[in-house]
Amino acid sequence: MERFKKASSIIETLKQQGHEAYFVGGSVRDLIIDRPIGDIDIATSALPEEVMAIFPRHVPVGLEHGTVIVVENGEPYEVTTFRTESEYEDFRR
Predict the structure, then answer these.
(1) Are 77 and 70 in contact (CB under 8 A)?
(2) Phi, psi of 84 (to 5 degrees)
(3) Residue 34 carries which DSSP code?
(4) Cβ atoms 45, 81 nearer than 8 A
(5) Residue 75 scores a pLDDT above 70
(6) Which residue(s) pair with 41 in the sheet?
(7) In the prediction, which pLDDT does 90 show?
(8) Residues ≥6 apart with Cβ < 8 Å to 6
(9) Which segments cross the bilayer (predicted)?
(10) How many domains does the chain have?
């Protein structure tokens, strides 16, 4: 739970900038079933360029998929732009 508390500042900052943002993925599942938490992922309405402008400590790792790693409180967090199912289908093999 402590890792989510640290990461919540990213979500709050994105919301203050007018974007939606949510915890997503396996870390949420792991929290619910009381498993050790690995990576924490965040989904947002902000575009990668907006995420990089908001957070000075970032690594543009997967811009083609809308993903930026934001380093906050000494921890890396993957922040990914929302995508629609039709966009997702385009990347399926």
Answers:
(1) yes
(2) -90, 160
(3) T
(4) yes
(5) yes
(6) 24, 78
(7) 56
(8) 72, 73, 75
(9) none
(10) 1
Own/partner pairs for 50-58, CB < 8 Å, 24+ apart?
50/17, 50/19, 51/14, 51/79, 51/81, 54/13, 54/14, 54/17, 55/10, 55/13, 55/79
Find the CATH number of the domain harbouring 40: 3.30.460.10
CA 43 to chain centroid, in Å, comes to: 5
CA 53/CA 36 separation, integer angstroms = 32
**Residue 78: domain span:** 2-90
Confirm if 90 and 83 have CB atoms less than 8 A apart: no
pTM over 0.90: no
As a whole number of angstroms, the distance between CA 26 and CA 14 comes to 21
